[in-house]
């Protein structure tokens, strides 16, 4: 093989996993062009997340608001399927990584995907406003289509445990504060509140914004696309998953299932019978 052919083959190999994210060779690590040693101790973990996902460093206030949203959704107790799974996995003697992976794997459309759905919903209203609709008209039209063609729970509203999700009002309050300071413009907060008000009018009762809707507001204000909202939720909830997996791993319990062993499931199958001889 000639030197030219070897060069072509090497270029093909180097381009196999071409990336804009990281440059690495012996003695050198650069993330998005920044040497890792220049980042360590100088930027926060939320700022690092922003850099990796967006390609540029945020300003301090943007990173602060991102960190606030990430902190808000870290845990919701062992009744949450992902947390329960992490704890059950830990009792089976697997390592922390396996317990975390088992839990994270259930963060899908139903459990963990509502933030992405909410931001997509709010984003459609924002696009309608860009085409000249008023906020109220855009929200009304989107909800008309939703109840006619889709139905179910409006993404970002309501909670099966909390009459008012205690995390949501605080997040919206902080978004308003950051908007007042010019960090964000407050548009998605306006949209979320318009959706909440419109649904209350239709239903005859208030169905408050929940954590998924509130974090969707934050991520929308900061310019994250909807699919990344789910990934950010996974990052956030992973903290709670890790904490519960670790706590459970320190206990002597083994093979702990979803119910106490004296509580058995309901059997609704065929009544007792014997095989024909």
Automatic annotation (TrEMBL):
<protein>
    <recommendedName>
        <fullName>citrate synthase (unknown stereospecificity)</fullName>
        <ecNumber>2.3.3.16</ecNumber>
    </recommendedName>
</protein>
<dbReference type="GO" id="GO:0005975">
    <property type="term" value="P:carbohydrate metabolic process"/>
</dbReference>
<keyword id="KW-0808">Transferase</keyword>
<dbReference type="InterPro" id="IPR036969">
    <property type="entry name" value="Citrate_synthase_sf"/>
</dbReference>
<dbReference type="GO" id="GO:0005829">
    <property type="term" value="C:cytosol"/>
</dbReference>
<dbReference type="InterPro" id="IPR016143">
    <property type="entry name" value="Citrate_synth-like_sm_a-sub"/>
</dbReference>
<dbReference type="GO" id="GO:0016829">
    <property type="term" value="F:lyase activity"/>
</dbReference>
<comment type="similarity">
    <text>Belongs to the citrate synthase family.</text>
</comment>
<keyword id="KW-0456">Lyase</keyword>
<dbReference type="InterPro" id="IPR002020">
    <property type="entry name" value="Citrate_synthase"/>
</dbReference>
<comment type="pathway">
    <text>Carbohydrate metabolism; tricarboxylic acid cycle; isocitrate from oxaloacetate: step 1/2.</text>
</comment>
<dbReference type="Pfam" id="PF00285">
    <property type="entry name" value="Citrate_synt"/>
</dbReference>
<dbReference type="GO" id="GO:0006099">
    <property type="term" value="P:tricarboxylic acid cycle"/>
</dbReference>
<dbReference type="GO" id="GO:0036440">
    <property type="term" value="F:citrate synthase activity"/>
</dbReference>
<dbReference type="InterPro" id="IPR016142">
    <property type="entry name" value="Citrate_synth-like_lrg_a-sub"/>
</dbReference>
């Amino acid at each position: 093989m000639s030197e030219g052919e070897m060069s072509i083959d090497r270029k093909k190999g180097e381009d196999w996993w071409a990336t804009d994210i990281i440059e690495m060779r012996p003695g050198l690590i650069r993330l998005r062009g920044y040497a890792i040693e220049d980042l360590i101790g100088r930027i926060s973990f939320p700022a690092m997340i922003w850099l990796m996902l967006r390609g540029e460093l945020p300003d301090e206030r943007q990173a602060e608001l991102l960190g606030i949203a990430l902190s808000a959704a870290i845990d919701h107790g062992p009744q949450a399927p992902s947390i329960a799974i992490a704890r059950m996995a830990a009792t089976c003697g697997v390592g922390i990584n396996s317990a975390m992976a088992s839990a994270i794997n259930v963060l899908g459309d139903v459990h963990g995907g509502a933030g992405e759905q909410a931001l997509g919903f709010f984003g459609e209203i924002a696009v309608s406003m860009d085409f000249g609709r008023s906020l109220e008209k855009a929200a009304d039209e989107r909800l008309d289509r939703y109840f006619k063609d889709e139905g179910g729970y409006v993404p970002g509203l309501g909670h099966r445990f909390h009459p008012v999700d205690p995390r949501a009002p605080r997040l919206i309050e902080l978004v308003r504060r950051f908007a007042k300071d010019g960090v964000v413009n407050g548009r998605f907060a306006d949209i979320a509140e318009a959706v909440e008000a419109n649904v209350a009018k239709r239903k005859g009762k208030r169905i408050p914004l929940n954590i998924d809707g509130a974090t969707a507001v934050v991520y929308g204000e900061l310019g994250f696309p909807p699919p990344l909202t789910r990934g950010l939720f996974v990052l956030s909830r992973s903290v709670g998953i890790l904490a519960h997996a670790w706590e459970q791993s320190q206990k002597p319990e083994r093979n702990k299932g979803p119910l106490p062993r004296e509580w058995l499931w309901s059997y609704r199958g065929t009544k007792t019978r014997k095989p024909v001889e």
